[in-house]
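User: As part of a screening pipeline, I want to sanity-check one entry by hand. Below is the sequence and the SMILES for NAP. Please return the complex as structure tokens so I can compare it with the automated output.
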Amino acid sequence: MKIFRAFRVEETRQAGKTSRVGRFVSMDETMLDAGDVLIRVICAAVSHRDALAATGQAASVRRLPCVVGTDLAGIVVSSAAPRFRPGDQVIATSHELGVSHHGGYAEYALVPGGWVLPLPAGLSLEEAMAIGSPGLAAALAITRMEAGGLKPENGPVMVTGATGGVGSLAVDMLAGRGYEVAALTRKAGREDWLKSIGAASVLPFAPEPVRHALDKGRWAGVVDVLGGDVLSGLLASTKPNGMVASIGMLSGTVLNTTLMPFVLRGVSILGIDSVYAGFSVREKVWERLSGDLKPRHLQRISQKVGFDALPDVFEKLIAALACGRTVVQIAPAGDTEDSP
Ligand SMILES: NC(=O)c1ccc[n+]([C@@H]2O[C@H](COP(=O)([O-])OP(=O)(O)OC[C@H]3O[C@@H](n4cnc5c(N)ncnc54)[C@H](OP(=O)(O)O)[C@@H]3O)[C@@H](O)[C@H]2O)c1
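Assistant: Here is the complex for your manual check:
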């Protein structure tokens, strides 16, 4: 039985105290979770959430030990699901990966068939991981905002957390569709980078209490990952019939607002959940991500690192020094060994 490498978060006890640590370990096939599709993982990706989980700082991992990594891409080794054959290139994002089912930071993954999609034509495995769950969320937001009437001629669209995964991919996709994008960021030195991926203007993040229930309407649309008072302020400054997509809550889970933006301006707030989005929704949105919504600056937005570099990447993400997306090469793409 072949032994393979994984990065796993585990519980340890020292001096009577329990804590979580992440480390590289050796695993074999019998240690994988139940699933229908055995995948030779070629690459994965790292988000802020993965970094917190991998360093034991997030309670989001519900089963220990657990291989971390919410997104993975690779080649089918064997499949009990008739949709897949050995050699197929596939992706799996979110669901329970890295939460209560072993995730992407291992050379092999055994995954329920319903979580697996064929690699969309027009994307490489690496590009699919540069997009990953954050890109799926950004694309879901754009799809739903446009279904609600958002068009480039309605006015500018604000993107918060703009240098992050969701933010940078949303900036790129929106600009590619002809929107004037305003990017909100805490990183003063990243203005040029944000403009190079499509932002028309860059605004500094300056949290302040919301003063008015309604301000001057500035945004035709908003893609927000921050929540809290930032989202309250953006709702108050959204134009009549504007669309606000709520994707994350990095700066607060409580929304302090009034009904005025909704009742007096017809503003809509759309909750975006890419984690449990249904199979057919994912399939359609991934098709668009490899077509009309494909980000034009993926090479600028993403960087690739080797498996060994994971601990350094976690540190950078937690210290908020990272920009865009980080793709992790788990196995060399040319590696044809296909059975654990
Ligand atoms: N709903 C869904 O389906 C879905 C899918 C994927 C991700 N998410 C969530 O969306 C959020 C963003 O994900 P991501 O992958 O883009 O994360 P990320 O790559 O870590 O980026 C988040 C960005 O937000 C800004 N930021 C982070 N913490 C902040 C804080 N406390 N206050 C203000 N700004 C802060 C930073 O950008 P600047 O430095 O440019 O300001 C950071 O780069 C996370 O909460 C994630 O869990 C939700």
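Points to compare against the pipeline: The CA atoms of residues 95 and 276 lie 6 Å apart. The pocket of NAP is lined by residues 47-49, 133-134, 137, 161-167, 185-187, 205, 225-226, 247-248, 250-251, 272-275 (CB under 6 Å).
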